[in-house]
Amino acid sequence: ALAAVERTFDGDGRTADGHRVELLANVGAPADAHAAAAAGAQGVGLFRTEFEFLDRDEAPGVDEQVAAYREVFAQFPGRKVVIRTLDAGADKPMPFLTADDEANPALGVRGLRTAATHPEVLEDQLTAIARAARAESALVWVMAPMVATVEETEEFVERCAAHGLTTAGVMVEVPSAALLADRILAHAAFASIGTNDLTQYAMAADRLLGSVAHLSDAWHPAVLRLVAETCRGGAAQGRPVGVCGEAAAVPALAVVLVGLGVSSLSMTPRALADVAAVLQATSLDECRRLAQLALGAQSAADARERVRAGLPVLGDLG
Ligand code: PEP
Ligand code: MG
C-alpha cells in the first residue's frame, strides 16, 4: 500500500504503464487559481464563474469580468483553462436571473437555460471571456452547464464561435446528455462530466438533502453506466471526455473513471497528489478491469467494495 506520507504532485498524471491522464484543478474564485498553480496543477478543468455573480442585484459589467478571468488565465500561461459559463439557479440562486417561484428549481430554469430568458447575460460573459482569452496566453476552453439537448449544444457552440471562442464544450450532468453524448459531441469539442449533478438527476435525489444522501453516491452503477455511455460517445466522435465533479477527487473512483475512458480529471487542488499516486500505481488494463467490476455491481456500496478489494495499493487512501 502507498505510505501515509505527505505526497507531492509533480504535475504529471499517468497510469503505471504510462497512459497519460490530465490532472487539473477546480477553481471557484481568482484566489483559488493561485493555490491551484502552487499545488502544481497543470491547468484548470473547471473554473466556476458564479463567485462574481452571487450576492448581487445585477450581473457584473464586462470590464469587471475581464479582470477576474484574466487573473485566473494568467496563472496558467500556455496551459488549458476550462471556464464554465454561469450556472445560476437551483443550489446557486441569483435573484436577477432565476425565478423564486418554481416548485422544483433543480428542474427549472437553471444553468444554460437562463440564456433563453436573459440572453444578454451570456452575451456579456462570452464577450468578457473572449477579451480575457485574447489578453493572456492560456488555452481557453469554454463550456456550458446543465445542457440537456443537442439543440442547446449547437446553439451554445455557435454563440461561442461568434465570439471567436472555438473550443466550446458542454457539461454532462443531465442523464439525457449522457445518453445522447455521441450526437452532442458531433457539435461540442469536448465534454466534462459533472458527477455531482449527474448523480442527483440519475438517482432523483436532491444533492443538498441529507435525508436522501444515501442515494447521492457517484459510485452507483447507474451513474457509472452514464459515464461509460458518455465516454462511448466521446470515443465515437474522437472528442475528449473529462470529469470535474467531486468523484474525480476520490482516488479509487478516479481509477474507475479512467478505466471507463475518461481522459482528464479535475478536482480540488489538495486531492491532486493522492489521485496521481494511485493512478501511478495502477495500469490502464487494471483500471479497465476495476471499471468493469464496478459496472457489474448491484449498488454503490457493492461497487466501492469490489474496487477497494481489487486495489490493495489504496492503503489509507480508500
Ligand atoms: C457537478 O455538478 O458535478 C459540477 C461540477 O458542477 P457544480 O458542482 O458546480 O454544480
Ligand atoms: Mg453541476
From TrEMBL:
Domain PEP-utilising enzyme C-terminal span(s) in chain numbering: 14-280
Cofactor(s) listed in the protein's UniProt record: Mg(2+)
Biological role stated in the UniProt entry: General (non sugar-specific) component of the phosphoenolpyruvate-dependent sugar phosphotransferase system (sugar PTS). This major carbohydrate active-transport system catalyzes the phosphorylation of incoming sugar substrates concomitantly with their translocation across the cell membrane. Enzyme I transfers the phosphoryl group from phosphoenolpyruvate (PEP) to the phosphoryl carrier protein (HPr).
Catalytic activity entry: L-histidyl-[protein] + phosphoenolpyruvate = N(pros)-phospho-L-histidyl-[protein] + pyruvate
Similarity annotation: Belongs to the PEP-utilizing enzyme family.
Binding site for Mg(2+): E173, D197
Span within the parent record: 247 to 564 of 565
Name of the molecule in the record: Phosphoenolpyruvate-protein phosphotransferase
Binding site residues for phosphoenolpyruvate: R48, R84, N196, D197, R207
Keywords: Cytoplasm, Kinase, Magnesium, Metal-binding, Phosphotransferase system, Pyruvate, Sugar transport, Transferase, Transport
Entry's localization field: Cytoplasm
GO MF terms, alphabetically ordered: kinase activity; metal ion binding; phosphoenolpyruvate-protein phosphotransferase activity
Entry EC no(s): 2.7.3.9
Regions that span the bilayer: none
Gene Ontology terms describing biological process: phosphoenolpyruvate-dependent sugar phosphotransferase system
Lineage per the UniProt record: Bacteria, Bacillati, Actinomycetota, Actinomycetes, Micrococcales
Active-site residues annotated for this sequence: C244 (proton donor)
GO cellular component, one term: cytoplasm
Keyword ATP-binding set for record: no
